């Protein structure tokens, strides 16, 4: 079953078309990674699905409904969004950030409640940030900050998380920390996740589905074994690469060794 999908969306900045007639579906309860070279439309696709960007034509569907027809608060109850490089107000603590995830559930008649408190406490615990809940975010490591942002999205109690390059600017250990957290949330909580990733090997290792974009269109979509091929790497990224398989989980991994059109 598809939780989130697009139907023939086209998106353009002035006269520059970024996405063209693009239809994709994000399976419910699965992790999907969107991959592709710089400028191919990965973040634009994610932003369109998050209703942060409005396609010129076509539509985005959430739980079978056209997302443009839903109230903003209703979308926020269903989708948790982690943008790339989110700005952190100075002095904000981890707990205060995570508490902001409850705002979609508040109204003039419904103020902060025990259920909000429980949701925040659970999000802090699940992501492992409860130990520094009262520390300022700007004192945390990159991996800890990313976990705090994910905790805020979890506090919204949405079924789906959209993450734009959640491992960018993180070192290897912190990248692993964030991806292992997302895998655990999916495995134990059934969380649907859609993320833009530059690291193809991580995408293949942690995703059930990969979507490769090329010049604003879907080049390939399917399981990592279906998408991570030498042909895709040549056509989409312009590199020659060997494909091998992770001895731990069997996921396809790539080893680029030459740019197409060049010789060593």
From TrEMBL:
Leader sequence segment: none
GO cellular component terms listed in the entry, alphabetical order: plasma membrane
A Pfam family matched in the record: ABC_tran
Protein's UniProt keywords contain Ion transport: yes
GO BP annotations listed: iron ion transport
Domain ABC transporter as annotated: residue spans: 4-240
Localization terms from the record: Cell membrane
GO MF annotation list: ATP binding; ATP hydrolysis activity
InterPro entries documented for this protein: AAA+_ATPase, ABC_transporter-like_ATP-bd, ABC_transporter-like_CS, P-loop_NTPase, Siderophore_ABC-ATPase
Entry superkingdom: Bacteria
UniProt KW keywords: ATP-binding, Cell membrane, Ion transport, Iron, Iron transport, Membrane, Nucleotide-binding, Transport
Keyword Cell membrane: yes
Entry membrane topology: Peripheral membrane protein
Record-given protein name: Iron complex transport system ATP-binding protein
Taxonomic lineage of the native organism: Bacteria, Bacillati, Actinomycetota, Actinomycetes, Pseudonocardiales
